[in-house]
Amino acid sequence: MKKLLCLSAVALAAWIMPADAALIASFGQTSGSNTVVATDNGTTTHIVIDDAATAVTTFAGGPIGTVLFSLDATSNDPATTVGGAVIQHYDGTFCFTASANCTGTNYLSGTFSDAAFGALGGPGLVVNVNSPPDLLALTSDVLSPAQLAAPSSFSLGFSDLTPLLHINGTTIAAFGASFAGTVSASPASVPVPEPMSMALLGVGLLGLGTIRMMKRR
User: Is 196 helix (H, G, I), strand (E, B) or coil?
Assistant: First the structure.
């Protein structure tokens, strides 16, 4: 079940990347247990992935196998509900590196600011950044600046949320989860494949439409 949910997260993340951007990385944790830890104080949520062993199945610079992935993201506004969905904006950083604490070879890292969305009471949450119009700055020791240019996207799917997605006070409540995702950048030379699942299409449309409606003013 965990593998199926991770694959679904990757498929959704791939669908919501910019249509004219090229896939430069697809990845997922190798652990069979949750590696994402989110904490909250009733007003702010802090999401952390700390040096999780991660299989990079696609990488524009050539095969790199298993690396360490870290993420640190903090909410910057109250969670908002629209219908059965919850939206909250986050500022954060991520890195794929050869050594712990984002040291050693920097295969890919970034700074971002955009939204997380998911269905209340559900087992999943997606962090999605599309630049433009959102903030996403990518750096790498092995990829050229031309490979990291806009349009770009960072999409991270959280699955197996424990407990299920809900709100505590005015923020997304604490949870544990597993992760998988994609990064894309620079103009694509071929069209991005259409999604295979209409269910994923529906979720993506709901999430993206709701995010744009609830953007910070």
Answer: coil
The DSSP call for residue 102 is T
Q: What are the backbone dihedrals phi and psi of residue 24, each rounded to the nearest 5 degrees, phi first?
A: -115, -15
Q: Token pair for residue 66?
A: 């298993």
**Cα distance between residue 199 and residue 72, in whole Å:** 30
Tell me which of 194 and 164 has the higher pLDDT.
164
Backbone angles phi, psi at 11, to 5 degrees: -65, -45
What are the pLDDT digits (tens) for 45-66? 999 999 999 999 999 999 999 9
Give the containing element (helix H, strand E) for 202: helix 198-213
Q: State residue 18's pLDDT score.
A: 56
Residue that the structure tokens 């020791």 belong to? 141
b/e sequence 182-195, b meaning 16+ C-beta within 10 Å = bbbbbebeeebeeb
pTM over 0.85: no
Phi and psi torsions of 110, nearest 5°: -165, 160
Is residue 142 predicted with pLDDT exceeding 50? yes
Preceding peptide of 151 cis, ω within 30°: yes
- The two structure tokens encoding residue 202: 């529906």
Q: Are 211 and 82 in contact (CB under 8 A)?
A: no
- 50: amino acid identity, one letter: D
pLDDT at 164 over 60: yes
